[in-house]
Amino acid sequence: MPVTEQTPIGSAVGNGVATVFPFDYYVSQAADLVVQIDGVPKVLNVDYTVSGIGNQQGGQIAFAVAPGVATSVTHFRDTSLDRSIDYQTTGDLFANTLDFDVDRLWLALQEIYSGGKGAPTAIRVPPGETVPPLPKATDRANRVIGFDSNGNPIAVLPTGGDATSLAIDLASSNSAAKGAGQIGFAYALAYGAGTLGRWLKDLAQSAGSSFIGFIRGGVGAVLRTVQDVLRERVSVKDYGAVGNGVANDAAAFQAAATYAATVGAAVFVPDGKYLINGIVTLPDKVSLWGNGKSTSELQFGPSGALRITGTNLGAGASGHLSIRGLGITNQGGGPTYALQLSYATRVLVSDCVIYNTSIQLSAFSYINIENCDMFGGKIVGDHPTVNEISEALKISRCNGSNFGIDIKDTADVHISLTHLLGPASQILIQRGEQNSSFYPPVQIANCIVDSGDDEGIYLIGVAPRVSDTFVSGGRTNLKSGVRLNDCVEGSLKGVTSRFCGNHGLHLGFSKQIKVLGCHFDDNKVSGIRLGDSSNITIIGNTAINQPSWFGGNYPQVNGIVDEPSNCTNITCVGNQVSGNTSTQIYLPAASNIIHSNSGYNEGRLTCDSWRPNTDNSASLGTSGARWSVVYAASGTINTSDEREKTSIEPLTEAHRRIALFLKGKIGVFRFKDAIEQKGEGARYHFGVGAQTVAAAFAAEGLDPHAYALFCFDEWPELPEMVVEHPEVPEVRDDDGKVVIEHQPARREVVQEGKPAGNRYGIRYDELAMFILAAI
């Protein structure tokens, strides 16, 4: 087809609405059309589509999104300088193929002459003239282009002092005396609007950062000012903080916090040692962040404290902030409590060092203290109002040396993965006198409390859950490892309490407590000491005395004891209590003591007698949980003191008939369960069936239940009791010697489940006397 004379370039201005723009020149392929918005090339079939390809009159460009207002939309044809058609000798020569190939040559020539590249983009001379090349680069350096008498280009050295020389000097980047060094500026002068001087002066003002743009990398980032970015965080140094440990920076901290509250920003503490000898109050939602607990240090003076203070725990609560990356220290003479929270909620204290000072919590909710190192102080919490409590305190992943935790009147305390070491190390959590009817839940898990002078863990008036925790302490003041006083509905699971100055576990005035799979050994007095408690379940524990591989242990005297002899309903199953120097198990009261054949040493008593605390008040076994065989050096002794009986009457004729009838019913039998276990090896017994005895009495019009020789007992359903023993990893000493062997996790059934049922029985000693009297 013929190629008409065309100008293959065009432009338009966007208005933010129009999406379709025409072009009026021939384009043979869509890829040959270049489309730009403000000089930025766009992508075909992504940013736009093209119609009218192959049309001499042109076509249309359709954008997916309308170009913005006042944007420059440019398009031009850019035919690639290549040929893909390969003509073969004696091959076919089709007109349209040849025509297309030749047309591309003319299109490329049009573009060079009048398109968006080539001659239109270069300096040109009139037709008929020719221009020699420019001088080489070394000859052109620091010179301007001029022309000689023939109009040919030459490199000319500028004349000193003229505008050309100044322009070259201003463009220089090789000398501090040129370029930017030649621009003068005086802050005291009043520069006109739109001048460089005015812009530089505005830039130096307080709002100067609002003139500088900022955009982050990545898709979706938007343009902001540097001022917006910087005001997201307020530095205490913006308000004059020095950070040299000498100047009092309390006022600077307070000013920074007060301003931060107005813009919703956090307060940043750069590296330094900041003396705080005054009260600094953090407003609601204003966080305080340091650069690291070892580099950003707050040194509190005698009058110093960091406070978060509200008016109540409702709408008036203050907090909703975090304190992190700081050292909080008392270098001597400072406050007892450097961090004080009152009517505070949702506060996170993270990655801080608390040194030689304490944290005071008074009326609070949802406080989280994590990843902190604490030395020589306490975390103290309570609620000052009668019949009101604080709630939701979480302490996790903290390390304390000579540091304690003392919490009152707080529900939902959760302490985990925390290690306290040293004389003052203790976890003390108590209900408080003003809430005597409420038992707040407390959970302690995966903690270590070691070498304290008092009880390692002391819980008073709470519903405790203590698990997988190691305790050792109280050696100086003869205190126990774990002590529970007036606690209800709780449990200890996987707790180890050893080398303590009194008892491993001291349980007093408590009820409905389960002690499962714990280890109490080498304590000075007892493994487990009970007193004034009821409904206590003790399953699968060890309360033993054994030499320690590293020494320093006490010879434990008792295993499991009810020392005041007043506990009731004690379930004691599958506990190992060997090696104690005096008593293994001592539970003398009217307790429900269940023995399990689990292979442990429970019930091996090293005392003169095993007796109930009250005469004639407790049974040995039950109808649903019987002893299999009783081995004794002599028989039982039954009370037969006539002073304790009514007058002894002779047998009636009805009695004689029954006795003689039963004599004839005595026969030989074997028990079915014995046959199931032993087969033909099951042994034979002599006796009579209890149902036959009952029928004989009924036939004479007598109630068999009125006679002690006849027994009928029922029992409720017995639940299965299981102890889950966690895996114990192997531990080696510094020489590689195995000191604790690996033990896999295992599940131990210490009491088989049994459905409810009943059973008939006979007291054969009385039956024998009955029949003997009738013969």
From TrEMBL:
Pfam families according to UniProt: Beta_helix, Pect-lyase_RHGA_epim, Peptidase_S74
Domain (Peptidase S74): residue spans on this chain: 640-775
InterPro entries referenced in this protein's UniProt entry, alphabetically: Beta_helix, Endosialidase_C_dom_sf, Para_beta_helix_rpt-2, PbH1, Pectin_lyas_fold, Pectin_lyase_fold/virulence, RHGA/B-epi-like_pectate_lyase, S74_ICA
SUPFAM superfamilies in UniProt: Pectin lyase-like
Gene3D superfamilies attached to this UniProt entry: Endo-n-acetylneuraminidase, Endo-n-acetylneuraminidase domain, Endosialidase, domain 4, Single-stranded right-handed beta-helix, Pectin lyase-like
NCBIfam families attached to this UniProt entry: para_beta_helix
Name listed for the protein in its UniProt record: Peptidase S74 domain-containing protein
